[in-house]
């Protein structure tokens, strides 16, 4: 496993991290989840990403149980706050009340005294940004959170948070967690240049585009049984936009490129995002340990400029690049 600094912070994280969105507590049973986490540990992954909302808070509990007995100082545990975790109007968003209640619930479920990174899971238009940043800063000062970050924030939202932190003497954002893959490059025009300038690292999710970049979805064919596209608990909604025959045909044309590089298509997809120097880590998920063992082989892989050019040529205008695709709810969900 290779390690990278999280932005310009002193924290080093594994360049492939393990995430449990849409798996732990929902798609797979606890025993299978534990096996996947242990496979990640065996492969040298030290960075684990979750969120309070995943599987209605169950994902944090499953991860905490799977990591029990591990040396805490040897792990980096990340979680997030924003989406609803209860029925009340304050069980959501980035108010001081919800942030404090959420972190205490997360720490309890994860079985730890602190998290290494606490992330605002979306931008909250209903709460003053100063209130959110002060609450995060207080958690840092209390030792319950070591670093703070954001997920799916636009460049102008990150810039405003940095400005307030500078004015108020708050801890600065060190990370951004966006969706990023060969097919979804909306962070490249605005978010990445700002983050490079400000020392913020990307921890990217869905580098395999919900499994589409593995090549398992064939043009003109129904999705394979048991795949994410057939999971009505949530996965199907996220993968749906990629399931058109033109895009799937282009993805099949990546296979000779992967073969030439000596990689599986999944490994090529993960290695591709890691070529971006602003990416600190790529999050991979798994429902089976063998998926973890496969994906980690992308660590340390260098793709030459010609191969990267050929990937762009194959995918053409199927790539989504519009920064406006990064969105947060205008009112609390």
From TrEMBL:
Annotated InterPro entries: AKR, K_chnl_volt-dep_bsu_KCNAB-rel, NAD(P)_OxRdtase_dom_sf, NADP_OxRdtase_dom
Family, per entry: Belongs to the shaker potassium channel beta subunit family.
Coiled-coil zones: none
SUPFAM superfamilies, A to Z: NAD(P)-linked oxidoreductase
Originating species: Actinomadura craniellae
Single GO term (MF): oxidoreductase activity
Pfam families: Aldo_ket_red (PF00248)
Lineage top rank: taxon: Bacteria
One GO cellular component, as annotated: cytosol
Keywords: NADP, Oxidoreductase
Domain named NADP-dependent oxidoreductase: residues: 15-314
Native organism taxonomy: Bacteria, Bacillati, Actinomycetota, Actinomycetes, Streptosporangiales
Protein name according to UniProt: Aldo/keto reductase
């Amino acid at each position: 496993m290779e390690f990278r600094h999280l932005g310009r912070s002193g924290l080093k994280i594994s360049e492939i991290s393990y995430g449990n969105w849409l798996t732990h507590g929902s798609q797979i049973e606890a025993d299978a989840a534990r096996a996947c986490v242990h496979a990640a540990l065996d492969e040298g992954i030290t960075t684990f990403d979750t969120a309070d909302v995943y599987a209605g808070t169950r994902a944090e509990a499953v991860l905490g149980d799977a990591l029990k007995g591990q040396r805490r100082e040897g792990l980096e545990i990340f979680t997030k706050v924003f989406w609803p975790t209860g029925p009340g109007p304050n069980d959501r968003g980035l108010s001081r009340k919800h942030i404090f209640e959420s972190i205490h619930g997360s720490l309890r479920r994860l079985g730890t005294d602190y998290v290494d990174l606490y992330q605002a899971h979306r931008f909250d238009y209903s709460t003053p940004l100063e209130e959110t940043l002060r609450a995060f800063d207080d958690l840092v000062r209390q030792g319950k959170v070591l670093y703070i970050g954001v997920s799916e924030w636009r460049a102008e939202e990150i810039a405003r948070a940095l400005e307030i932190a500078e004015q108020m003497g708050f801890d600065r954002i060190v990370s951004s967690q966006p969706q990023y893959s060969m097919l979804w490059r909306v962070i490249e025009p605005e978010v990445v240049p700002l983050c490079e300038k400000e020392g913020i690292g990307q921890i990217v999710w869905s580098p395999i585009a919900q499994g589409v970049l593995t090549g398992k979805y064939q043009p003109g064919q129904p999705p394979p049984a048991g795949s994410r596209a057939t999971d009505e608990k949530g996965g199907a909604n996220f993968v749906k936009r990629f399931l058109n025959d033109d895009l799937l045909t282009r993805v099949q044309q990546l296979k000779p490129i992967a073969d030439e590089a000596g990689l599986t298509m999944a490994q090529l997809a993960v290695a591709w995002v890691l070529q971006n120097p602003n990416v600190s880590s790529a999050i991979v998920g798994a429902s089976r340990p063998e998926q973890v063992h496969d994906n980690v082989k992308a660590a340390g892989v260098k793709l030459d400029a010609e191969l990267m050019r050929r990937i762009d040529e194959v995918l053409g205008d199927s790539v989504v690049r519009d920064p406006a695709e990064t969105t947060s709810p205008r009112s609390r969900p």
